[in-house]
Amino acid sequence: MSRKFFVGGNWKMNGDKASLGELIKTLNSAKLDPNTEVVCGAPSIYLEFARAKLDPKIGVAAQNCYKVKGGAFTGEISPAMIKDVGVHWVILGHSERRWVFGETDALIGQKCAHALENGLGVIACIGEKLDEREAGITEKVINAQTKHFADNIKDWSKVVLAYEPVWAIGTGKTASPAQAQDVHDKLRQWVKANVSEAVANSVRIIYGGSVTGGTCKELGGMKDVDGFLVGGAALKPEFVDIINAKQ
């Protein structure tokens, strides 16, 4: 089954109107592969700015949201608010949310359910830490994280799974193409066994972790790597090369 290549750019807590405006100009003027879906994850305060300035063919994602529509939750934003500013995606479960801010699998699952119920697409992030990989429990860790998402997903057509080994995020270390393919293949097998074969064949599983213009072509050539979630390089002109990795 043909899965549309998906490249997400996670801007994290970076940029201002001037620098992001320049990046947006670069993206809008670039020749991007029409067969690749592109989504940029902007800081919440710049979501409306990004949506107004980016070419409509480029999607925008919030980097987080909460599990209810509204209320006394200082500092949080809801899927309803995200949609209200014209944004249709959210990144959930990113390792920085898990390990810096202490978000649990259970909370992330609840957020995923609420976001999907309110019509947002979800970039659902999973991945193991270095000590877990060295202990040989990568598969156990990512299966447990994936299960918390799967238990909260009714419609998989709005979900992209992002495998991001924590040891490769912002470190300059990248999983080898073979390592990425191995985990993606095992993830797809887990989805086949625990959700359905149809979902396993159709769900896009993207890789994140120090993806660059230099590494993207070989990674993107792997059978079960359906795109990327890009951090640092998403703020640079080379993001265009990553979007065009399949050309």
UniProtKB/TrEMBL annotation:
Reactions performed catalytically: dihydroxyacetone phosphate = methylglyoxal + phosphate; D-glyceraldehyde 3-phosphate = dihydroxyacetone phosphate
A single GO cellular-component term on record: cytosol
Classification via InterPro entries: Aldolase_TIM (IPR013785), TIM_sf (IPR035990), TrioseP_Isoase_bac/euk (IPR022896), Triosephosphate_isomerase (IPR000652), Triosephosphate_isomerase_AS (IPR020861)
EC number: 5.3.1.1
Biological processes per GO annotation: gluconeogenesis; glyceraldehyde-3-phosphate biosynthetic process; glycerol catabolic process; glycolytic process
Keywords recorded for this protein, A-Z: Gluconeogenesis, Glycolysis, Isomerase, Lyase
Purpose of the protein: It is also responsible for the non-negligible production of methylglyoxal a reactive cytotoxic side-product that modifies and can alter proteins, DNA and lipids. Triosephosphate isomerase is an extremely efficient metabolic enzyme that catalyzes the interconversion between dihydroxyacetone phosphate (DHAP) and D-glyceraldehyde-3-phosphate (G3P) in glycolysis and gluconeogenesis.
Subunit structure: Homodimer.
Similarity annotation: Belongs to the triosephosphate isomerase family.
Official protein name in the record: Triosephosphate isomerase
Organism: Oncorhynchus tshawytscha (Chinook salmon)
Lineage: Eukaryota, Metazoa, Chordata, Craniata, Vertebrata
Gene for this chain: TPI1
